[in-house]
Amino acid sequence: MTTHITFHESLRILIREKLASGGLARNGMHGVSGGPGKGQICVACGITIGESQFVMEGIGSGEHRKALQFHTVCFSIWDSERKVFRRSQASRQRTRTSDHLTR
User: Fold this and answer.
1) Which of 37, 35, 33, 27 is closest to 65 using CA atoms?
2) Residues with Cβ < 8 Å from 62, sequence gap 6 or more?
3) Per-residue pLDDT tens digits for 89-101
4) What is the pTM of this model?
5) Mean of the pLDDT values across residues 7-15?
6) To which H or E segment does residue 39 belong?
7) What are residue 20's phi and psi, to 5 degrees?
8) Do the beta carbons of residue 25 and residue 53 sit within 8 Å?
9) What's the rounded Cα separation, in Å, for the pair 47 and 2?
10) How far is CA 89 from CA 46, 54, 68, 83, in A?
11) 3-state secondary structure of 24
């Protein structure tokens, strides 16, 4: 049996991996705006954002405090996945704290 994953699923996996490794901002962005692409490189997928495409841009925070550009679909997936990532990190932290307190 052959398993096929969709383009969006493969993007989601790539973005999850980058979030886990610290390669993508885990916090939100400031000053988010959108407009036509001008050949920027998407920080999520690494593919050029063409002039016929729409770019989402904002200033990251923390170690990613710089202008970040995304394809709109990559931005949407990143925004969703970073929230999931942060919730899972918070849950792990609570579990570690609870385990530490019961020892």
Assistant:
1) 27
2) 25, 26, 27
3) 876 666 555 555 5
4) 0.81
5) 95
6) none
7) -65, -35
8) no
9) 27
10) 25, 31, 23, 10
11) coil
Q: Are 50 and 44 in contact (CB under 8 A)?
A: no
Whether the Cβ atoms of residue 25 and residue 62 lie closer than 8 Å to each other: yes
| Percent of the chain topping pLDDT 90 | 68
**What pLDDT band is residue 13 in, cutting at 50, 70 and 90?**
very high
Which residues have CB under 8 Å from 68's CB, separation 6+?
25, 29, 43, 57, 58, 59, 60
- Closest-CA residue to 7 (of 77, 96, 93, 85): 77
Q: For the chain, what are the domain ranges?
A: 11-95
Widest distance between CA atoms in the chain: 58
Which range (2-6, 29-33, 40-44) has the least confidence?
2-6
